Amino acid sequence: MSPTPKKKETVEDYFAMLDPMKRKISQAVRKTIKEAAPDIEEELKWGQPTYSKEGLVAYVFAAKDHVTLGFFKGATLKSLDERFQGSGKLMRSIQLRKPSEIPALIVRRAVQEAVRANQR
User: What pTM was estimated for this model as a whole?
Assistant: First the structure.
């Protein structure tokens, strides 16, 4: 009988279970988000890292061949560009395959805009 895989309980546990490239991308996204809003709350929700401050802001999800960075109310954020896609009313996301694909300036602006919107 094989051992049961360790349950992800923290964001650190989540990142630790990723392959090296996805871990590097995810940690770079995390750094960018925290630079934009140093006091943002980070927790594991719905099995993935989520970021919130007075409401949901963003999430990171490691898929089979990429890492998704999503904004819960992305459709309302003027900071996002056409690389952030979504077919629903609010959520918008981008698929990242390497750290150099992270649009850091846009992400920082979008995080700050989302936090301001949550404070209204």
Answer: 0.91
Tell me which fold the domain 11-119 belongs to: Aspartate Aminotransferase, domain 1 (3.90.1150)
Q: How many residues does the chain have?
A: 120
The pLDDT of residue 120? 87
Long-range contacts of 94-99 (CB under 8 A, 24+ apart): 94/68, 94/69, 94/70, 95/63, 95/66, 95/67, 95/68, 96/25, 96/29, 96/66, 96/67, 96/68, 96/69, 97/25, 97/65, 97/66, 97/67, 98/21, 98/25, 99/24, 99/25, 99/28
